Amino acid sequence: MIAERTTEDQVFAALSSPVRREVLRLLREEGPRPVQALAGRFEMSRPSFSEHLRVLREAGLVTERKAGRQRLYQLEAVPLLDVQEWLTPFERFWREKLTGLRDLLDRLEDEEP
Amino acid sequence: MSDDDLTALHLDQFLPHPPAKVWRALTEPDLLARWLMPGDFRLEVGHRYVMRAVPMPSTGFSGTVLAEVLAFEPERMLRLRWRDADPADDTDWTVTWTLEPEGTGTRLFLRHDGFDPDNPLQQRARRIMGGGWRSAVIRGLEDLLDSL
């Protein structure tokens, strides 16, 4: 449990930075990107940008893989799903219920032709 | 109402079924039990009943709802008061369903009012995210999740 909590705190901390949120947004919209391409979008020193990427990696929000001479960064959605559970539990509750309502109405069609 | 209003939740969903049928699902106890929660609902202003759902520990919600019919207009609107059955929980929500015909179907609007903006869980998220966290982060998350 302690380990899970730590991960959650890391995810929240990672999301607290506008720069890191913007990195996630870019990866979401553009797919996996080489680190150089990402860094080029931000006006900051390369070591500072690398530090942001490290925080994202340690929170499990991005992963890095080698592709030839490049290092590609990719968004990982699972930690975001966990965070959403914290931020919007009732939205999730209602979305699930509404899905159930739609399924029920579809079934009623069959029961009462 | 802005996305940053932390006291209310709005959702809407298109249902390819006419309002009369959607209304049945909102007001007939047998049907309510099949998609929402079991309970002795009766379509009558002032009627009080109990519904049981799954507890949500991350919010403090006990899972048992003391509900009351506040108002309704057949096939158009149903407004309910929801309180948590746990006396230690001072939750006092209003849940309003609104039905609008759309084509051959219905657009069902849900408005869930009465969230406490001082709730420590929400405060925690706000502190971390800073201003605009809801629109910036949650919308982004939703887009992301929809695209998975």
Description:
- Chain A is an alpha+beta fold and 113 residues long.
- Helices cover 69% and strands 12% of the residues of chain A.
- Chain A contains six helices and three strands.
- Chain A has helices at 2-15, 18-30, 35-39, 46-58, 78-87, 89-111; strands at residues 33-34, 62-67, 70-75.
- In chain A, strand 2 and strand 3 form a beta hairpin.
- In chain A, helix 1 (2-15) packs antiparallel against helix 4 and helix 1 packs across helix 5 (78-87).
- The radius of gyration of chain A is 19 Å and the shape is elongated.
- Chain A starts with a helix and ends with a helix.
- Chain B has one domain (10-147): Alpha-D-Glucose-1,6-Bisphosphate, Chain A, domain 4 (2-Layer Sandwich).
- In chain B, 28% of the residues lie in helices and 34% in strands.
- Chain B has four helices and six strands.
- A six-stranded antiparallel sheet of chain B has the order 1-6-5-4-3-2, covered by helices on one side.
- In chain B, strand 4 (77-84) and strand 5 form a beta hairpin.
- The model of chain B is unreliable at 126-137 (pLDDT under 50).
- Chains A and B meet through helix 1, helix 2, helix 5 and helix 6 of A and strand 1, helix 1, helix 2, strand 6 and helix 3 of B.
The CATH architecture assignment of chain A turns out to be Orthogonal Bundle
Mind telling me the C-alpha Rg of chain B?
Answer: 17 Å
What is the spatial order of strands in the main beta sheet of chain A?
Answer: 1-3-2
Q: Termini distance of chain A? A: 51 Å
Fourth-level CATH superfamily of chain B? START domain
**DSSP strand count of chain B:** 6
Compute the CA-based radius of gyration of chain A.
19 Å
Q: What number is the mean pLDDT of chain B?
A: 78
Proportion of β residues of chain B? Answer: 25-35%
| Secondary structural class of chain B | alpha+beta
List the uncertain runs of chain B: 126-137
Order of helices and strands of chain A: HHEHHEEHH
CATH topology of chain A: Arc Repressor Mutant, subunit A
Number of helices of chain A: 6
Q: SS-based structural class of chain A? A: alpha+beta
Strand order of the largest sheet of chain B: 1-6-5-4-3-2
What is the CATH domain class of chain B?
Alpha Beta
